[in-house]
Amino acid sequence: MAPTEVDLKKTMQQYEQILSAISSFLIGVDSCGGVILWNPRAENIFDIDAGKVLGRPFKDCDIRWDWEALNRKISTCCLEKRQVRVDDFQYSRPGGGAGILGINLTPLINEGDEPGFLLAGADITERKKLEQQLAQLQKLDTIGRLAAGIAHEVNTPTQYISWNVLFLKDQFEKISCLTTEVAAFLQSLEGSESFSSQAAQIRELLSEIKFDQISRAIGQSSEGLERVTKIVAAMRDFSHPGSETMVDADLNRLITSTIEVTYNEWKNVAEIKTDFDPDLPLVECFPGEFNQVILNLLINAVHAVADAISEQGEGMGVIQISTSQEESMVKISIGDSGTGIPPGVQEHIFDPFFTTKEMGRGTGQGLYICHNVIVNKHHGSIHFETEKGKGTTFNIMLPVKQER
User: Fold this and answer.
1) Three-class SS of residue 315?
2) Which of 78, 170, 202, 326 has the greatest CB tally within 10 Å of its CB?
3) What b/e string do you get for 355-372 counting C-beta neighbours within 10 Å, with b at 16 or more?
4) Per-residue pLDDT averaged across 191-207, rounded?
5) CA–CA distances in Å: residue 77 to residues 15, 64, 82, 209, 357
């Protein structure tokens, strides 16, 4: 019995419902290259109505992605008549910003020799973000545990070396005073009958002792140990395990710890000037994630200053960090004397995977993480002021207390 028109309509409605319920986008292309299927999910992801593309050549669809790379995959799929997977395929989202697709290409076999193909896939940008964040968090967790262990191991010998140096410094001062008195006494005896050759030898030995150099060496050792102690304390603070709940934290101390642990990054590039509000209140936050934000911004500032120095050929740059309170908010500013952010990229700097740095110098995740931590997790704000050739300042606003 042949199907009636009602049956066909019912079948078509069921077919459309199935296509609407599928979470993946589906794009069908016939052997002539024309679009024969464009489901609602494809309309949502690419912001293109099915009516505008059905029956038209697939290559004329206004999707901003790497057509050349995709066509190579399509050729493989159709010529070898097998399914082809396209992983991490980048495209430009209609609303702006980069997105990532996972696509399966499947040949559509027809009566002729040339098959069409079906694109089935999904926007996996958010999943990739989470994977990147998880990988970074795991790496930071490992580094943090190693740093905590190193800090503990270094701290003990540093303490007794520091005590010994202080003891030597105190004893040296006493010996120095004693030798001064002995030298004066021998000077008073010179020329008298009681001034013997042995006394002359003692005076000569005293003159050979480099008391000024000894004093300078002890002073430098003491300063070095003080520096090591600060670094160890900073590493201990910086690598402290993150809390699952917010705690009241001293932001001035957290920022100081980050400056200390990044010393090797900026020591030959810039001078860091700080202007911390001594009366800054404790701020309710996730200390570990706040440290990560400061670390990312500080490293970005160092790179910007280094680029400016490279263009100018000499000199040292300046990185300024300040904290202040503005009513119920705390403001943290990190400014640099770098190259500034070009106008063409300013609107994208908080996008995931966006970077203007060369390969190996950045992943495009740093500022995205900063924005996510400050805005989404701490309900604050982050914005920047920049001028080409003058530098950039990032301003963070955090509430002192979170709203319940």
Assistant:
1) coil
2) 78
3) beeeeeebebbbbbbbbb
4) 65
5) 26, 21, 5, 86, 35
Encoded amino acid at 99, one letter: G
- pTM of the model as a whole: 0.49
Q: Is 240 left (phi over 0), alpha (psi -120 to 50) or beta?
A: beta
Q: How many CB atoms lie within 10 A of CB 349?
A: 21
| Residue 308 to residue 200: CA distance in whole angstroms | 63
3-state class (DSSP) for residue 108: strand
CA–CA separation, 27 vs 56, rounded Å? 12
pLDDT, tens digit (0-9, with 9 covering 90-100), for 308-349: 888 776 678 999 999 999 989 999 999 999 888 888 777 778
Residue 117 in contact with residue 107, Cβ under 8 Å?
yes
Determine the number of helices (DSSP H) and then strands (DSSP E) in the chain: 11, 12
Q: How far apart are CA 149 and CA 235, in angstroms?
A: 10
Cα Rg of the chain (Å, integer): 34
DSSP 61: S
- C-alpha pair distances (Å), 87 with each of 65, 97, 105, 134, 362: 13, 19, 11, 19, 22
Residue 29 makes CB contacts below 8 A (sequence gap 6+) with: 35, 36, 58, 108, 116, 117, 118, 119
**Structural domains of the chain, with CATH:** 5-123 (3.30.450.20), 125-241 (1.10.287.950), 244-404 (3.30.565.10)
CB atoms within 10 A of CB 44: 12
Task: Output the six-digit token pair for 317.
Answer: 């740059």
- Alpha carbon distance 371, 341 (integer Å): 17
φ, ψ for residue 385 (rounded to 5)? -125, 130
Alpha carbons 308 and 269: distance in angstroms, whole number: 10
Residues 213-262: pLDDT tens digits?
777 777 777 777 777 777 676 666 665 555 567 889 999 999 998 888 78
Which one has a higher pLDDT value, 197 or 334? 334
Residue whose C-alpha is closest to residue 329's, from 275, 292, 379 = 379
Task: Please give the Cα distance from 84 to 77 (Å, whole number).
Answer: 6
User: Tokens at residue 310, please?
Assistant: 């490279």
C-alpha separations of 94 from 28, 84, 232 in Å: 21, 26, 49
How far is 130 from 125, CA to CA, in rounded Å?
9
List alpha helices for 190-210, DSSP H. Answer: 197-208
pLDDT band at 131 (very low <50, low <70, confident <90, very high): confident
